[in-house]
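Consider this today:
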Amino acid sequence: MTRLSAASRVAAAVSAPGYAPAAHAAGIVHIGVGAFHKAHQAVYTDAALAAAGGDWRIVGVSLRSADVAAALNPQDGRYILVTRDEAGDGARLIASIDRVLVAPDDPQAVVAAIADPATRIVTITVTEKGYGLDRATGGLDRGHEAVAHDLASPQRPAGLVGFLVAGLAARRARGLGGLTVLSCDNLPENGRITARLVGEFAALVDGGLAAWIAANVRFPSSMVDRITPAATARTFADAERLSGHADHAAVETEPFTQWVIEDDFAAGRPAWEAGGALFVATVAPYEQMKLRLLNGTHSLLAYAGFLAGHETVAEAVRDPGLRAIAERQMQAAAATLPPVPGIDLDGYRAQLVARFANRAIRHLTYQIAMDGTEKLPQRILAPLAETLARGGDAAPFAFAVAAWMRYCLGVGDAGEPYALRDPRERLIAPRVAEAGRDAARLYEALSSLPGLFAPELAASGALRAAVVPLLAAMLEHGMAGAIARQG
């Protein structure tokens, strides 16, 4: 079977790009080329190129592994997007990625790509842990491994903020104009956070550079949504079956997709609205909605579902007891939200449950459970804190908090070990070991992790009273038993 490339003619079952890729130069650098980018921003850019043209193809950057470059570059950036629902599969050839750079192999190539006069936008999907954010201050964490490295060696960066600052410094030195840095990660007010981190880092390197960035670079916020599991052997087999070519970069996803973007760009933008993107003055209401309803419920289903023996989100949400717990949390989280223009929250919650239940998408609970200390604050703890501040009930959120604490033990109900895959795992492990299986001690050990629980949450007797009995039930009766006891 021949490998997918620019010269490939795909089978009729695959939708082909509505433009000639070679006729369009690159104008976007994307940091963090993974499955989500290939199922989301690259797809919107593909639609924009077909609708309105322009030099908006993407130079991808991998901050760690060379695998994505090894898969995409021999295919001239092409790949098959497989869209799955229970009615069947669809397939589309995406051609918006020009090439992929591997940062550890050639960091100067990444700096040069950001500093290229043709580059007008830098987009980002590196997950929450990639930013070097100090949760306690909201600013730059100088102890973060990549941040510390890049402050010591700003000319040879390794992390996100270091690369952004080095690339912007090179633009300034060349007398070029600014550009737009567009975060697409699940952080509240991700544009404001990125701007602060870049500004703080630049000020430590060169005060004049920090002032130039503030005057010339835009940092709009955005909200992204599309359930995208990791690719599997089935993904690649189905892409080959549908296209007629071997594809080492194929990705699968659900039919639903959403992108809400603040319309504040320094040097133009693609016609992303052709793919359905919504441009707004402020993204905050949409962002909170997604973080608290979709992502918060995902985290609950991940921790409780994984420990109850549910491999996928679809299995977890089809557990009647767990679904009832999830729906109570969603309802409580919705009560913390401001009005969201154009969105009926009851309809949105029902749509989420239907999406979660899509058995054609094997979104693994263990995959979603990773990086819990990075995700919990904005997904669960923020709406919980607001609920308590208004005199509300902690109970709807308590099961998720208890499930995360139980998950931190790193061993299932049958004694099987698993890795937490959390950036603070080394800090969590000794606390958990000391607390053992005592629910009260475990709660104290984890709620006092520096910078995780806000001070008012860590000191809340109401939260403790809600969580500790649930955690004790999980430890005594197993997760499945604890879920059943909630009925």
About this structure: The first strand starts at residue 14 and ends at 15. Residues 461-485 form the longest helix (25 residues).
